Amino acid sequence: MLPVAILQHEASQGPGFLSDYLQQQGVPSLVFQAARGELPEQVDHYSGLVVLGSNRSVNEALPWIEAELALVQQAVARDVPVLGHCFGGQMLARALGARVHRNAWPNIGWSRLWVTPAARGLFGGERQAELFNWHYDTFEIPRGATRTLFGTHCLNKGFALGRHLGFQAHLEVTEASVRAWCEESRGELATVDGPAVQSEAQMLNGLARRTAGLHVLARGVYRQWVNGLQRPRITHLHGGW
Predict the structure, then answer these.
(1) How many whole angstroms separate alpha carbon 83 and alpha carbon 52?
(2) pTM (two decimals)
(3) Residues 106-150: pLDDT tens digits?
(4) In the chain, what are the domains?
(5) CA distance 116 to 226
(6) Torsion of CA 160, 98, 86, 33, to 10 degrees
(7) According to the model, what pLDDT value does residue 232 have?
(8) What is d(CA 236, CA 3) in angstroms, rounded to the nearest whole number?
(9) SS3 of residue 139 by DSSP
């Protein structure tokens, strides 16, 4: 099958568990450093498009953000499945015509979210999900999409529209990536506070258990998204199946 294109923006925010899952399923993938202006030339050459997190806001007037938005819009127009994590979820929301704006307060660390009834099949029947978060902005649910997750300190945490999935959270993080993210962001953590902000110690507490639980949930989400990827058309000879 065609490879999945993965757009990465920060060294500490790589595909992580998603990369492991795709490899286990025999799904090829290519990582593009989108913040450096590296993007796929044609979205049609890929079975799906993944957009990872970023320290930037999707509303910033940066050339690479506008180019990436155009690529996601192209994927939506051509029915290439998009999977967005945090910044990626915001980018998908914008591509679908929804507004992205500042949340009431920062959302940093682990939080327990509620799974909507319509999305429980996506999360293995679970009513709640503990996910990792690191964001200041939030998205509105695009027209025609279904909310999949909601939280106490951020209402819109996920949505689905056809084969497209957007999350205002990180399902892909690993123990190593959470530790690296906390280490590089100590200056940021020293200046930010709020009811949904955890300290580095709080984020690292029970990290192995938390990431293991996260990956159980992520595996189900990724399985459904992968099942919707573009498959090559098979030409049947002699007019029959």
Answers:
(1) 9
(2) 0.94
(3) 999 999 999 999 999 999 999 999 999 999 999 999 999 999 999
(4) 4-232 (3.40.50.880)
(5) 21
(6) 110
(7) 54
(8) 23
(9) strand
Residue ranges of the chain with per-residue pLDDT less than 70: 230-241
Q: What is the pLDDT of residue 86?
A: 98
Residue-by-residue DSSP string for 195-224: TTB--HHHHHTTHHHHHHHHHHHHHHHHHH
Determine the Cα–Cα distance for residues 65 and 90; give it in Å rounded to an integer.
12
- pLDDT single digits (tens) 41-66: 999 999 999 999 999 999 999 999 99
In the sheet that holds 82-85, the strands lie side by side as 29-33, 4-8, 48-51, 82-85, 164-167, 158-161, 146-150, 100-115, 128-139
Place of tokens 């909601």: 150
Interatomic CA distance for residues 77 and 152, integer angstroms: 33
Closest CA to 138 of 117, 148, 153: 153
- Length reported for the chain: 241
**Residues near 183 by Cβ (< 8 Å), separated by ≥ 6?**
none
Residues 6+ apart with CB under 8 A from 19: 6, 29, 172
Contact 145, 167 (CB under 8 A): no
Q: How many other CB atoms sit within 10 Å of the CB of residue 161?
A: 18
Amino acid 1: pLDDT: 87
